[in-house]
Amino acid sequence: MTRPGTIDFVWLLPLLLAAQPVATDSYLPALPEIANDLGSASTSLTMFVLAFGIAQIPIGLLADRIGRRPVLLGGLSLYVLAALGGALAPNVEVLAGVRALQGAAMAAILVCARAAVRDLFPAHEGPHVMARGLTGLGVVALVAPILGAAIVQWVGWRWVLAMMAVYASALLALCWHSFGETRAVREPAQPAPRGGLREVFASRSFRVWSSLAAATYGGLFCFLLLSPMVYIGYLGFSPALYGWIPAGGSAIYICSTTLCRRLLRSHGPLRTVRIGALLSISGATIQALGCALLPASPWPLLLGHAVYCMGHGIHQPCGQAGAVGDLPQLAGRAVSWSGFAMMAVAFCTGQIAARFVDANYSHGAWPMVMPMLIAGAVLVLIAFAWLPTLQPVHKEATT
What we know:
globular, disordered N terminus, Growth Hormone, Chain: A
């Protein structure tokens, strides 16, 4: 809920979700310069993702027990401190360490934001609310890499992290003023909700929808991790020019989340997810054909990425909201386990794919493209084989 005289949570949600692209997308153009300055770059991004995934598990439990507001405010405070620490990092070890702290802080922000959606809205409205919030996230993700590239080119990579601290400081002040507690207050005689890995994963709906979100994000993360090396190192793009590539993907993502809301109203979740799956596999296939037939051309990669982003913008609102829809009493824990699954898939696929990138780029763009192709195939299997087994999906799709 929001406090009297403050902004509504629907408008606050996009700003909270956008803290993630601020921490990742604006950071991408800085990776080559960080590598030149400190000797390594991908480690800091990987540590961020690893900490982000693992920290969600205890944070979800904490948010269910003590409430969303104190965990959210604590996460924003840590985010500010970690970003400032990264801006001052003297070596890659310190940078990786503070980025891990920032990932844990990001986990607190996103877990509380997503849990608050389930606290405040019924399950059938969740995908619509998340789609609206992710549209706002996409707007920030559109600006973040362009701004990050400009900052790197003008004043250096350290100021990118300083910009993150400024954003989080403003968001902390806004949440302190506007974000009230959303967790339902228990009656004294009512037992505290119990649950953990067994209870959350016992939900068939959770398993399906969280798998959908994890698969689509796993493919996209490999783009986030490896695209600077592909476009800047392999294809020779400047950091400023590269910044427009994730920005363009974000613009398409914005349109896709808007389309998702319309598809949900007219076609229901099952057909909506199937449309997204076909877009995802088509985009990855275009990229794969480009790698095979036009390995020196960026155009198939760009076109395929655009189509994949259209599918991603459909899958994320549905997957994130659907994973917690059947577990209102365990919203924090369901959100945390869903987020952990997303980050675990992203971390594992990213680590495997990164092993095929060498100084001579002998494998071309394949290390970036192949995980997206596999993710597209998995999404098709989920949409056409697994998701239809959920009876509520059938009913809602036909209403």
